[in-house]
Each structure stands twice: as C-alpha cells, then as structure tokens.
Amino acid sequence: MVPAKKDPALNKFRLMPLVISALFLAECGSHSSSPLDLAEYESQKVTWGACPMNYFVPDDQHSKVFDKERVQCGYVNVPAEYVTGYSLSDFKIAMMRESATGATKLGTLFINPGGPGESGVKELQWLDFPKEIRASYDIIGFDPRGVANSAPATGNQIKCDDQSDFATYWTGEDSASNDAEYLAHVDMIDAYYTKCSKDNPSWWTLNTTNVVDDLELMRKVLTGDQPLNFLGSSYGTTIAASYITRFPEHIGHITLDSPTTNEPTTDASAITQAKATEANVLRLVTGYAKAHDMSVDEVKSLMLKVRQEADDNQLLGFAGMTVVDSANETRQSSEYMFTHGIFALTYYDNATAQDYFNQGLESVSSAQKWNGLFEYFALQLDGYEPDSLRGPEFVGGNIKRNNSFEIMTIVDSMDIDFTNHKTIDERKALADKIKQAAPFWTSLNSDASNYQYVGDREGIDWNSIATTDSHIPDAPTVKPERTNTSGKPVLVVGAKFESTTPIEFAVKTALDLKSPLVTFNGTGHAPLAGFNHKCLNKIFVDYFVHDVLPAADVTCSS
Predict the structure, then answer these.
(1) How high is the pLDDT of residue 173?
(2) Please, what's the largest Cα pairwise distance for the chain?
(3) CA 369 – CA 276 distance, rounded (Å)
(4) Is 500 part of any domain?
(5) What is the model's pLDDT at position 8?
(6) Any bridge partners for residue 138, and if so which?
(7) Cα(58)–Cα(68) distance, rounded to whole angstroms?
(8) What tens digit of pLDDT does each residue of 286-342 get?
(9) What is the side-by-side strand order in the sheet with 71-78?
(10) What is the pLDDT of residue 53?
(11) At CA 113, angle to CA 350 and CA 147, rounded to 5?
C-alpha cells in the first residue's frame, strides 16, 4: 500500500454548514511587544548522536538511498512563547541529520513535509533527493513543535484521546437529517475539545509564528551566520512564506512546493478549492467510466447509490465500532469513510489515484459492499495506522495513530480565527456558491434529506477556547501579507491539476514573493518533493547547487 501524503485540507471537527472548507493556512500575528531574551537559547550547543529507534520508519517505507548508519539525531530547545509573561515548558525540537556526501559542502538544508502535523524526521527518510543535493548539503528533517517527537521538555506529546477521536468518525454527522442528530454530534465534539485542552496546557502555543521563530533559532544555533536553505511542501510553504516575509535578510535557497493560500477572503478560497476538488473527483469518475464502459452520469449515480447505502448502514469494512461478522473481521462502515477515502486519493498523482479509486468503487459497489479500501485511505490520511484497527471486534486500546490531526486543527485555528460570524442568510448564500462550484462533490457529501444546519450553535473549538480564556492570546482575524523584500527570488512550484492547493494559490504566491513560477503540467500534491520528475529535479538542482533560477515562468511536463 502506498502511504498517503497526510496533509488533510478538510477538518472533521469544523462544524460549519458547508460541505467543503477552505485551506486556512496563514501566518499568525505576534502576541506582544515584549520579546523574550533569547541569549541562553541562542548559545546552546547541539549534541549529535545515535537516533532513537522510534524515529525510524519501517524499512519498506524509506527511500532506496536512505541509510540508517549515515544519520544522526539531536534536538534544540525553544521557548514555548517568544514573548514574556508565560510560564510554560520549553519544547525540544527533534532533528535527524544526513551529512553531505561530497567533499565540498554548500550549506545546510532544512525540510518540512507539511500538515501542519507531519514529521520532518520521517520525511528525511522518505525522500530520494538528487545525488547533487545529497553531495552538497547536510539535510536536516525536523519535527515542528508539538509534532511527533517534538514535545514539551517536561511533559508528554501533545495529543488528544485516541478513542474519543475515533468515535467521532462513526456518529453519523454526515448523515444528520435534523437538528437533533447534528447537535448530538456537536455534544461529542465539545467533550473532545474540553478534555484535550485540559490535558495539553501548551496547545495554544502551536502556531506558524512560533514555528518560524523556532526555525530561525535553529538556523542560528546550527549554522551561525549562514542563510536559511529550506524546502517546504504544502503547509511547509506557509512556514517558508512567513520566514521570507519576516527574515528577508537571512534568505538563502528556499523552495515552496504546492503553496498554500494567503487570500484575505476565505469565501473565495473555499470556492476555488471546491472547484478544484470537483474537477479532481470528476477525473476519477471519468476514468472509471472509461474502464467500465459506462457513462459519467452512470458512475455518478452509482456513487450516490453507494453513499445512500452507507447512510443506511449497509456498507462493510474492517475498522468500524459495530461488529457484523467477527469470524471474518467485518464491521459496519460509514458514509464518511467512503467520501473521505475518495478525498484522500486527491493527494495522489492521477494514475495512482485512478487505480485505487477503481479498485475501491468496484469493491464497494459489489454484492459484498466492501468499503475497506476507502476506509484505509480515509484513516491513514488522518494519522491512523489502519492495520491496528483490524480484528474480530473493536478494541479501543489497540488504536495506533500519530498526533498529526490535532496538530493540524490547532495550528490552523491559532493562525487565523475560524469563528463563523456569518448570518444565516450569508451561510446559505455561501453554501449555494459552494454547490454551484462543486455540484457533484456537494451532493456526494450531503444527506439525502438535503438537511443543512444553519443554526447559531457552533460548538466548542480551539478558537472559542482561546477567546474565553484570558491567559491565551486570541488568534488573528486577518491574514498578514506575504512579501519578499530581500531582492532574491525563490523557487515556487505548483501542479496545474491538483486540488489540495490549487494552482491559483501558487500563481498568487509567486507574485507576492516576486519569484518565477514553475508549473508542473500534471496532478498530485507537492510534485517536486517526490523527486521523480526530471524537469523539476533539474530546476531544483540548478537552484540549490548552481544558484540559477528560471528567468521567467516555466512549465514542466516530466
């Protein structure tokens, strides 16, 4: 099974009356005018040594050139907040370093795979960097604060309760046909947030501003006066853009692979992403139709039929909480597992996604109504190890998952206030625009009753917790501009036919950062970081090794 790129754009805990929510991955504003004295942090020395065994991914998941014997690990202490007035434990930022293989080293390259919530320590093991890059750079993968191995120095990993999280997948939010059903789900979510915030007192310090300050501190501690070299994919481009805006004097070679949005109007971003998601899903529908000698409308009808069967509790899988056949390890699946599994495939290149989509739809529309493949991708996207959920019955204590999902929701929320201040009429108007932009995807994610909650109860979320606690700074309500005053262009790459971060986001980012745009004429999220396209590889190597960027916008097809 190909591991999914776990950088989810939808948040199952955002209780908005919309089918599709936008990527709100923007930089967070500063909280105070009284900066913390960083002298002690800046003078620390990093001790590199053997990596803990739990840092390593399984042997069948790392790149063909990765060698455990060639890497070392260490950590940098960073303050929980970069302003005075708080008494919280420092974070220990976990790092894995692969030293340059060549005789002439050009610098240190930091990498971030996105999320927010994904591990740079693992990314270093996944990526098959061009040999010229490995020869010229020490490459450091780091886990941003709160992510994976970067936990508070005196506490446990920031994480919500596994069983509470898992239960929310099976409560029928997607199939709510009235306010009572919908609000019952809200009650469950409220309990989840209340417990998680109490269990993790440092949760609110997870925001992009602090991550960028951590990165700047790491640059100083590890490389001294050398400029920052950085490869960021997806949310990693949010980190990169913020760094470029705030520390233009320290820019070295920086690449933004599939940039996020920084548009000031979230409605416009939601509509842009709705259109892109619709187009991506319809490509899969068209591919299935061709492979099975069906019309596109017939495939759409088939998928809507399957969705309704899921709503009627007819689909089967391996991960649900209700046992159907213990001998065959079969449980009741759900409509969310069906639609979220399809959404997870939009992160892949079209060929890979099509193959899995065809397999999944064939299986779920058969007499067996097996939704196991879509379940697998849906759960994997949100940080679960799907195989830990198999067995004759559901055992909550067997759940294995990382903390990527809660990190994503926290960082997104503390970067920008998600609070929905729209009137009921404004909500209905936006829902109509979403439906117009993505009619099929909207219908696939809607209950047959066409019920939509438009009441005034939002439920608890990270923003509401922050605004009701006087000790926690409120998230900003507007996004800061992205600028590049360094006089140095950077490398911006976007895929023309992806939907996670639509190409429009890359176009705007390139303009904001006064840089050329490299458009990959294909599908798949973060196309450069796969390092399997010759044209993109050459541009990346020319930039990092030979200090040469395209003079103008360029398109790559391979």
Answers:
(1) 54
(2) 68
(3) 29
(4) yes
(5) 33
(6) 108
(7) 11
(8) 999 999 999 999 999 999 999 999 989 999 999 999 999 999 999 999 999 999 999
(9) 71-78, 91-98, 137-142, 107-112, 228-233, 251-257, 491-495, 517-520, 554-556
(10) 96
(11) 130
Find the helix or strand (DSSP H, E) in which 253 lies.
Answer: strand 251-257
Dist CA 471 CA 468 (whole Å): 9
pLDDT digits (tens, 9 = 90+) for 452-489: 777 777 788 899 999 999 999 999 988 889 999 999 99
Q: Is residue 145 part of a domain?
A: yes
The C-alpha atoms of residue 317 and residue 554 are separated, in whole angstroms, by 45
325 in helix, strand or coil? strand
Question: Any alpha helices (H) in 385-525, and if so which ranges?
Answer: 404-415, 424-437, 439-444, 462-468, 503-512
Residues 6+ apart with CB under 8 A from 366: none
Residue 459 to residue 464: CA distance in whole angstroms: 9
HEC profile of 42-75: HCCCCCCECCCHHHCCCCCCCCCCCCHHHEEEEE
**pLDDT value at residue 2:** 35
Is residue 416 included in any domain, yes or no? no
Residue 109 belongs to a domain: yes
Q: Which CATH number is 114's domain given?
A: 3.40.50.1820
Distance spanning both ends of the chain, measured CA to CA: 24
Which element (helix H / strand E) includes 248? none
The confidence score (pLDDT) of residue 477 equals 85
CA pair distance 119, 150, nearest whole angstrom: 9
Using DSSP, state whether 304 is helix, strand or coil. Answer: helix
Please state the domain count of the chain: 1
Instruction: Name the stretches of the chain with pLDDT < 50.
Output: 1-32
Domain that holds residue 241: 39-157+207-264+481-556
Are 417 and 473 in contact by the 8 Å Cβ rule? The answer is no
Strand-pair partners of 323 = 331
